[in-house]
Amino acid sequence: MTMNLSINGQSYTVADEPSSRLLLWVLRDELGLTGTKFGCGIGMCGSCTVLMDGQPTRACITPLAAAAGKAIVTLEGLATVGADGAVTLHPVQRAFEEEQVHQCGYCMTGQMLTAVALLRSNPRPSEAEIVAGMDRVLCRCGAHVRIKRAVARAAEIASQEGGL
Amino acid sequence: MSEPINTDKSKRGITRRQFLIGAGVTGVAAVAALRVAGLPYARLQIAEFLDSSGGPPIGIDAPASAWFEIMPDNTVRLFLPKVEMGQGVHTALAQAAADEMEVAWEQLEVVHAATGRGLDDPVGTSASNSVSSLYPILRQAGADMRQMLRTEGARQLARPVDDTAAELGYVFVKAEPAQRRSYGAIVAAAETLTPPEQPAPLKPPAELRYIGQPMPRVDLRAKVLGQAIFGIDVRLPGMLYGAVAHPPTVEGTLKRAAAGTAGSLPGVVQVVIDEKSGFAGVVADSREQAYAALGGLDLEWELGHLWQQAEVEEAVTAGGSGGVVIQKEGSVRGRLREGAAVEAEYRVPMAYHAHFEPMTAVADVRDGSARIYTSTQAAVSVRGDVAEALGLDAEAIVVEQAYLGAGLGHKVETKAAVEAARLSQGAGRPVHLVWSRPEDFQNSFVRPPTHHILRASLIGDGMIESWVHEQASGKVALPFLPAIAGTILGHDFGAWRGARTSYTIPNVETIAWVAELPFLTGWWRGLGLLPNTFAVECFMDEIAVAAGVDPIELRLRHLPAGLSGERLRTALLAVADRAGWNTPTPAGRARGVACCVDYGTVVANVAEVSVENGQIRVHKITAAIDPGVIINPNGVAAQVEGNVVMGLSSALLEEATVVDGVLTPANFGAYRILPLSATPEIEVVLLQGDSKPSGIGEPPIGPVAPAVANAVYALTGQRLRRLPLQLG
Questions:
Q1: A80 close contact with B: CB closer than 8 A
Q2: Which pLDDT tens digit goes with each residue over A100-143?
Q3: Inter-axis angle of helices A144-160 and A91-98, to 10 degrees?
Q4: Is the CB of B86 less than 8 angstroms away from the CB of A141?
Q5: A142 closest CB neighbour out of B358, B405, B643
Q6: Which residue in A57, B702, A55 sits closest to A47, CA to CA?
């Protein structure tokens, strides 16, 4: 009848039928979490990236059933909000802001979440490792050189602050 | 990115005649000229007029109060008709307005203006003109606001105006700065604010706070947090989801449509069919249900001719009859009759815009009025087209603009908004529509294919004596203008942007052919600039080789007249210096150069390439740009970087073709765009050689592909004359 989804540390109840529904549209249309974007529908561009148990996952080709029991993080869940409402950006968000990476910003959900996963598995990536890790998330505005710089900067910020 | 170098040697700005896009003005100009001198002459005159105008201005004549809202908490809202699609115009324009108004940067909130606010913009967000057209207007509006606030603030402080000053959101008493009132408090307590009778004086340059500084993007925090509302993110209470049946071929039309079984499929709320306008769509509780229900519609399509790519290329062929002369200096006849010293043909294929946010709109049509929320570069066109489709007055429609997940020229298209409006009208509830990726690629206009034939003759000392450029292109601007414009003009000023050579050559002829194609082609970042600069600047390289002259030296010998020539010289020398043009390349690499003057902006690129495993590898692009006054150096650098990446993507990868009547490929993956791993180092050199800002959103895309192609020739001896570049 219904199932629970764990998203950004919160529990959401959604209908479990049809279970072939795609996670992307459940997030966007049913739960109003529009930070996750639609680009291609075939998992090629990366704009719909979420983290599922820490793994970058393309929500546009992920059936709802595959999300059961997984801890999902969307872009909305990266920053932390204190009791006073003050927002603390994630180191990756800070780095992207400091490097002024975004142009239209539409693909940046995928860029930032992929960077988070990359830095968790490899906290001090080389330039080549950054390129390899980020290569499958496409960007049309051409923020490429800044994406590369921002991921390197995020690694620095994270290491100064004791990791992600 | 370097600090901007001011190279402005002129005491005066260039005066440019201005024009308005649309049959109204061009039509009148053309008819007047026709009476005097006949058709070919008139068409040439119009081409010269359009080319010298530096792009369309906008005529927004609004009081300061239309641009600003000042809230009691001292937040200042700046309303802009120009949309933010990544190009950074909200930040640059906020800098202009906030500087003159004396607003603290944190106080400022930039908001998209809906239609009907008094800021309606007939040009839309296009033609790289947002900053160049609104910069003086917003500086003045900001200065007027500051004067109004200071006058009223002085009254509320019971002091003479001259004893007060306005800074960073407060009016205060100069001798006692603690005596102050915030702009918000002044407005809250004011009965009226009186606009100044004379335009308020602008700040002297030394007092500017924001203009010229790398201010952080005003849209960035919301985008970093995932809170920015793009068109696709709009949600309304009671909203349903739509899907529309689109033709299966480029020439396809809907002959007959009936609901079939669609109405009884799960979740379907309404089937909307209008055979007369070829429309059939479904409204459902979910997007998946709406798309599934399209299969239940009973539709009969007329597929039309199943076009193949070879037929398209044949239709786009320069030479023969029917061309229109759009540039003429001296006489090329005789000089080229015995055969040109250099002759070459170039082709540039079709390409998609490939912005990641597909066409999307939310429409709420009820009780004879409509509200449309959409990612659009042309809100006024959306309003007009929705009004026409629904049979409503334009005044009954409001178009709310949202952030665009890029636009790139494609989002002047109004089709998705019209479709959403038809569906909402049928369902009587708000409807959200997003095109699928294949719909976005195959169901709207694409960058037109082009063909170029160039010929030149030389005289001694490596000087070009005569130059002919014959250019054919699918349409760019004409499909979006009344048909009469095409009849009168005979050429498409969008398609030939960049085709007229700006070099000083005694005998020049540029001739344009408008290709009739069975599908819509149109605006794409830079319009004709990318294909034409590719052809013209590669051909300059061919001439340099034939003449035995260094390619930069050849360009310096043929600089345009006047200030743009001086600025181009500076840019070429700057890019040569930074790229190490006169130093040896690392082993296995070579360099190429290309440049352009476009919409008043000067750009020069040097590419450094190698060949790895038979593939072209671009290691570095050095790009010098002179866009006149630089309002935000970081923003200009970002636009140059973005143009370089998009230009490289076209140079190396992008191509759409027609196969069996269908545009292909249908999605990313098969349609490749430049990934991070193919992106070179990009060094941007900023120059300021004019006293006003010109465009940065498009001009830097021009020289990218030819710089790479010229470098490939220098390295391999292979002259690649077709995009995407592929080694033989």
A1: no
A2: 999 999 999 999 999 999 999 999 999 999 999 999 999 999 99
A3: 130
A4: yes
A5: B643
A6: A57
DSSP assignment letter at B560 = P
- Predicted confidence (pLDDT) per residue in A25-42, tens digit: 999 999 999 999 999 999
Q: For residue B489, give the nearest of B35, B16, B17, B39 by alpha carbon.
A: B39
The answer to whether B85 contacts A104, with C-beta atoms less than 8 Å apart, is: yes
**pLDDT tens-digit readout, B28-63:** 333 333 344 467 777 887 777 777 655 555 567 788
pLDDT of residue B10: 38
Compute and round to an integer the Cα radius of gyration of chain B.
27
Q: Compute, in degrees rounded to 10, the torsion defined by CA atoms B256, B257, B260, B265.
A: 150
pLDDT of residue B657: 98
Test A143 with B638 for CB contact under 8 angstroms: yes
Question: pTM value?
Answer: 0.94
Task: Tell me which of A100, A109, A127 to substitute to probe the interface with B (most B C-beta atoms closer than 10 Å).
Answer: A100
Q: How many residues does chain A have?
A: 164
Give the amino acid at A141: C
Residue-wise pLDDT for B149-173, tens only, equals 999 999 999 999 999 999 999 999 9
Sheet strands (E) in B349-449: 360-366, 369-374, 397-401, 431-434
- The beta-carbon neighbor of B676 closest among A42, A100, A135 is A135
User: In which band, very low, low, confident or very high, does the pLDDT at B565 lie, cut at 50, 70 and 90?
Assistant: very high
A81/chain B closest Cα distance in angstroms:
11
CB-based contacts of B574: which residues, under 8 Å, 6+ apart?
B5, B604, B624, B685, B687
Handedness of CA A114, A115, A120, A121 (dihedral sign): positive
Nearest Cα to Cα of residue B52 among B561, B401, B533? B561
- The least confident of B188-197, B426-435, B667-676 is B188-197
ipTM entry: 0.98
Alpha carbons within 13 angstroms on the beta-carbon side of residue B287 total 22
According to DSSP, the residues that pair with B79 across neighbouring strands are B111
> Hey, is the C-beta of A79 within 8 angstroms of any chain B C-beta?
yes
Residue with tokens 């935000």: B632
Residues 6 or more apart in contact with residue B5 via CB below 8 angstroms? B574, B685, B686, B687, B688
> Taking a contact as any Cβ pair under 8 Å apart, which residues of chain A between 99 and 138 contact chain B?
100, 102-109, 112, 131-132, 134-138
Query: What's the one-letter identity of residue B635?
Result: G
